[in-house]
Design goal:
The protein has helices spanning 14-18, 24-38, 71-80, 125-129, 134-147, 196-204, 207-218, 222-240, 245-253, 261-264, 271-284, 287-290, 293-314, 317-328; strands spanning 44-45, 52-56, 62-67, 91-97, 109-116, 121-122, 157-160, 163-166. It has 331 residues and is of the alpha+beta class. The strands form two sheets. Strands 1-2-3-5-4 form a five-stranded antiparallel beta sheet, sandwiched between helices. Bound molecules: adenosine-5'-triphosphate (ATP) and magnesium ion.
Length: 331
């Protein structure tokens, strides 16, 4: 069930990979948008948003959201949301030509993410209190923890029919981890247990293939790929230990040295595994390491040396995976 088993269908450059060419629905959307531009229907800046534009078709029906900032992350979040498990709307990279979008470079073309518009409404407190949304909330939580999304608040979730739709993923897959505060962490749905299907989904994701995909196909820096790898190990360990999203969210908020004992007190079993993995993420995020491949490799070596004795005795597969990360990093 892995997206990356389909490697053969992927072209080599990120732009091709993420372009609408391979996505007939989005190809039509982009085509309609260009027709609308030609008919003088302009992009509209979304009120309150930093740099998001609403694009309409010739009949003025909303079709897509265009963002020129963080577009690789927007599209990659959609790609990594394999089988639309969390429901990230279809998102592609495209270049558009319109004075409102700016784009002095590239002869007036602006490259950005083009995400399918979902007719919906904003989330309100009653939505999250209703346990009907628990499944959506758990899946959005898994996505956010996997992608280390530091911008998940209720304004970045839409209600579309009966589902919650996560949007705004430009702050995912960061090169450094400084903690994430998740809007869902106290919602009732986050207190419910992950289902067998959800656990199975995480268990079957291949962290090393995803890491390579981010580095080689999308072209993200090595620090983004390595943090993503570790974030997935954390989730895999958490699935083994039956933690719910609410319990897990506390690890993401604070540095591991000051993890809240009050909240974590009732948690049983092998918590140090997860704590150690967060320590590795924090260490890799220190200024001395994160920005160069060489220094990132040194930092991983440090971590392995630091934890070697305990990790060996624990024989935990997720810690071992971090040790295996080292040889896979090119010198
Ligand atoms: N796919 C979508 N379908 C419908 N509406 C959307 C979609 N994506 C975003 N929106 C709406 O547009 C708003 C702005 O989008 P988004 O949050 O992605 O932009 P932003 O500029 O990054 O915002 P922020 O200022 O929060 O960083 C959202 O809050 C949401 O209301
Ligand atoms: Mg937003």
């Amino acid at each position: 069930m892995n997206l990356f088993d389909q490697d053969a269908i992927f072209p080599s450059s990120a732009f091709d990979l993420l372009s609408p060419i391979r996505y007939p629905l989005m190809q039509d959307v982009v085509c309609e948008i260009k027709k609308a531009f030609a008919a003088s229907i302009s992009p509209e800046k979304i009120e309150g948003a930093t740099a998001a534009y609403l694009l309409r078709d010739c009949k003025k029906k909303p079709l897509a959201i265009f963002k020129a900032q963080g577009y690789l992350h927007e599209c990659t979040a959609h790609l990594l949301d394999y089988k639309a498990f969390a429901g990230v709307p279809p998102t592609v990279v495209t270049s558009l030509h319109h004075p409102i979008l700016g784009g002095l470079a590239l002869g007036g073309e602006v490259i950005g993410s083009c995400q399918l518009f979902y007719k919906g409404r904003s989330l309100n407190p009653a939505d999250v209190q209703n346990l009907k949304t628990a499944k959506s909330i758990r899946r959005i939580a898994l996505l956010d923890m996997r992608l280390l999304n530091s911008d998940r608040h209720s304004g970045n979730i839409l209600v579309h029919k009966d589902a919650l739709i996560p949007v705004d993923h430009h702050l995912t897959l960061p090169p450094q981890f400084f903690g994430c505060s998740f809007g869902w962490s106290h919602w009732p749905g986050a207190h419910t247990s992950f289902s067998a299907e959800e656990k199975n989904y995480i268990t079957h994701l291949d962290a090393e293939k995803e890491r390579q995909f981010l580095l080689e196909k999308i072209g993200l820096p090595i620090s983004c790929g390595n943090l993503h790898f570790i974030a997935l190990q954390i989730l895999k360990a958490a699935m083994d230990q039956d933690l719910n999203a609410h319990q897990l969210s506390f690890f993401y908020r604070l540095s591991p040295d000051i993890l809240p004992t009050r909240t974590l007190a009732p948690l049983p079993k092998n918590l140090p595994i997860i704590r150690d993995l967060f320590k590795v993420m924090n260490y890799l995020s220190e200024d001395a390491f994160w920005s160069s491949q060489k220094h990132h490799t040194i930092a991983i070596k440090d971590c392995i040396a630091h934890f070697a004795a305990t990790w060996k005795s624990v024989r935990d597969p997720y810690q071992r995976a971090i040790s295996n990360l080292l040889p896979s990093i090119p010198k």
